[in-house]
Specification:
alpha+beta, Nucleotidyltransferase, domain 5, five-stranded mixed beta sheet, ATP-binding, 11 helices, MreB
């Protein structure tokens, strides 16, 4: 038992990660909960709930309480985070201080819901930091210098992009086009073109196994099983990487256009810095084959994949809680948004 513990949390659409001062990243679980509609109780969460996705009886609902980085179901999210906070890897303490990474451009109501959620999950003191700032710290970028860095965080629910200079976000943009959106495009394309019904887990499997943003030297394919559209019976179908690449082209183009818009709306001096420093990419979707090459070709700026892109946001919150006084000015510092 300790008097106070300091933790950093990345409450993502796909995964929830927790950083404990002195131990590093101690929890990395899917942000999924299974809810029993008869008893009104959460029966599973994290990896246990993910196994149930698209495989449950009618009285059990498996859902993501966080959608596009925003809390969609407060009660379910609270119970899930409470369970995570009670993990045996996180010691009990009298007091808990938490720094949470949140998407850019949230409304005051959306930020307040995150703060309330973490407080009701057992924290005494809650501070919010925008995810691109946390990602920059987790990637060991020197954001105190008067030079600009462009951080591109492509997660499961949202794509966050921001230009950072002198300890602050100069301009930012958030798109609801990310990993889950690409999965839905694959589900629709397999149904329309291959006449096969598949679920989200299979679409994710296709994306990881053969998905690419640009043509690859190695030809890839994967055998997928689903329900035939016309007969309703099980069927196996071979899916090639060239097919998946064509299905993903449109959403990837929307991400490219969003990135171009951000750069075009930035001050000229900062654009010069970005050309010199490059674009730093992180998040789960950043590992899609050929994506750095596609962005580099379209923008003319070098694209660098950060070390450990899946955990850079939670490691950034860890940097803040470990040196809290040094980085206190980065916290709870948001512009007023009109709803």
């Amino acid at each position: 038992m300790i008097f106070r513990k300091d933790i950093g949390i990345d409450l993502g659409t796909d995964t929830t990660q927790i950083y404990l001062v002195g131990s590093g990243v101690v929890l990395n679980e899917p942000s999924i909960a299974a809810f029993n509609n008869r008893t009104n109780r959460v029966v599973a969460y994290g990896y246990e709930a993910k196994k149930m996705l698209s495989r449950t009886p009618a009285h059990i609902t498996v859902a993501r309480p966080v959608v596009h980085g925003i809390i969609a179901d407060f009660e379910m999210a609270r119970e899930m985070v409470q369970r995570f906070m009670k993990s045996p890897r996180i010691p009990w303490s009298w007091s808990t201080r938490v720094v949470v990474g949140i998407p850019t451009n949230l409304t005051e109501v959306e930020r307040k819901s995150v703060e309330d959620l973490i407080k009701e999950s057992g924290a005494n003191e809650v501070h919010l930091v925008e995810q691109p700032l946390a990602a920059a710290l987790g990637s060991q970028l020197n954001i105190e210098e008067p030079t600009a860095y462009l951080v591109l965080d492509i997660g499961a629910g949202a794509t966050d992009m921001a230009i950072i200079s002198m300890n602050g976000i100069v301009t930012s943009k958030r798109l609801k086009i990310a990993g889950d959106y690409l999965n839905n495009e694959i589900v629709k394309a397999v149904r329309d073109e291959l006449k096969l019904h598949i679920g989200e887990p299979t679409a994710e499997e296709i994306k990881v196994a053969v998905g690419a943003a640009t043509p690859q030297t190695e030809r890839l394919d994967i055998a997928v099983r689903g329900r035939d559209v016309s007969s309703g019976l099980p069927r196996e179908q071979l899916v090639k990487d060239s097919q998946v690449r064509s299905w993903l082209a449109k959403p990837l183009k929307m991400i490219v256009e969003g990135l171009k818009d951000l750069i075009e709306s930035s001050p000229a001096e900062l654009v010069g810095d970005i050309h010199k420093n490059g674009i730093y990419m992180c998040g789960g979707m950043s590992q899609l084959r050929g994506l750095p090459e596609l962005l580099e070709r379209e923008t003319g700026v070098e694209v660098k994949l950060v070390d450990e892109p899946l955990t850079c946001v939670v490691r950034g919150t860890g940097v803040i809680v470990e040196k809290f006084e040094k980085y206190r000015h980065l916290l709870d510092n948001f512009p007023t948004l009109k709803i």
